[in-house]
């Protein structure tokens, strides 16, 4: 038996990186999966390979959210799980960042998550219960140079998660956040970011001296999506190899 047998999941930002790992693991664990992204070529290829259902999904769009949820319910009859995974990152110090770039990051990462929670309420109420997993970051706990907008969005996801957990518990809908650290994805290892980072110093500062594989985050997400996490809501789960334990001297 799979951890997610009988569950129907909608995953955003699922075409590559952590989102792709979530899609693959959820399928392995028995879920029926619909996933969205704006990367149509990669999304369609993953859907063809895995059998998951792909839908074009800009998480800042109310209309796209309506279509993604309608596709999920129309295809599988219900919605049990939402993983708000879609996110973007742009390295810019405050003095150099444009207001437009700031607005874009907040819109995708924070508003997109809020719209996801809002869009999932009615179908999860109809299903009798549900689990929402919001992907934040360790930058939801600490600041990072050049990441003011990203950190603001990820701090904000913590607030949305906790408010939603309190509002939705009466409907048996759980809401939790996951906070990845250094994950081996194309977004985290973007050349623009790596050019600004002392990679050797960063590696030495790690408690576990390596980047995580995306699947290591997916296992935590799948647990929170499952009934085994039935008493977890409003909580924050770090997958950071110990990065937030303290400073290394």
Keywords:
alpha/beta; Rossmann fold; seven-stranded parallel β-sheet; 8 helices
Describe the structure.
This protein starts with 7 loop residues before the first strand and ends in a 10-residue tail after the last strand. Strand 5, helix 5 (148-168) and strand 6 (173-180) form a beta-alpha-beta unit. The chain is globular, with a radius of gyration of 17 Å. The chain has a seven-stranded parallel sheet with strand order 3-2-1-4-5-6-7, with helices on both faces. Helices cover 45% and strands 14% of the residues. It has a single domain (8-239), classed as Rossmann fold, CATH 3.40.50.720. With 249 residues, it is α/β, with parallel strands linked by helices. The protein is built from eight helices and seven strands. Helix 1 (17-28) packs across helix 8 (214-225) and helix 3 packs parallel to helix 4. The mean pLDDT is 94.
């Amino acid at each position: 038996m799979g951890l997610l047998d009988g569950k129907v999941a909608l995953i955003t930002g699922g075409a590559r990186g952590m989102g792709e790992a979530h899609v693959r693991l959820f399928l392995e664990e028995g879920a029926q999966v619909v996933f969205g992204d704006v990367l149509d070529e990669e999304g369609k290829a993953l859907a063809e390979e895995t059998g998951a259902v792909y839908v074009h999904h800009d998480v800042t769009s109310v209309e796209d959210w309506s279509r993604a949820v309608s596709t999920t319910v129309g295809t599988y009859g219900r919605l049990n799980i939402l993983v708000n995974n879609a996110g973007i990152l742009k390295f810019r110090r405050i003095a150099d960042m444009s207001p437009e770039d700031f607005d874009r990051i907040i819109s995708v990462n924070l508003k997109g998550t809020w719209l996801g929670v809002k869009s999932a309420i009615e179908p999860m109420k109809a299903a009798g219960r549900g689990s929402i997993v919001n992907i934040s970051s360790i930058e939801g706990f600490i600041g990072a140079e050049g990441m003011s907008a990203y950190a603001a969005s990820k701090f904000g996801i913590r607030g949305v998660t906790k408010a939603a957990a309190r509002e939705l518990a009466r409907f048996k809908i759980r809401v939790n956040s996951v906070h990845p650290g250094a994950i081996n994805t194309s977004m985290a290892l973007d050349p623009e970011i790596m050019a600004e980072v002392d990679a050797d110093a960063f590696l030495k500062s790690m408690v576990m001296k390596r980047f995580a594989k995306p699947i290591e985050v997916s296992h935590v997400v799948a647990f929170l999506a499952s009934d085994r996490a039935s008493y977890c809501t409003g909580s924050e789960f770090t997958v950071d190899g110990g990065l937030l334990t303290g400073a290394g001297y």
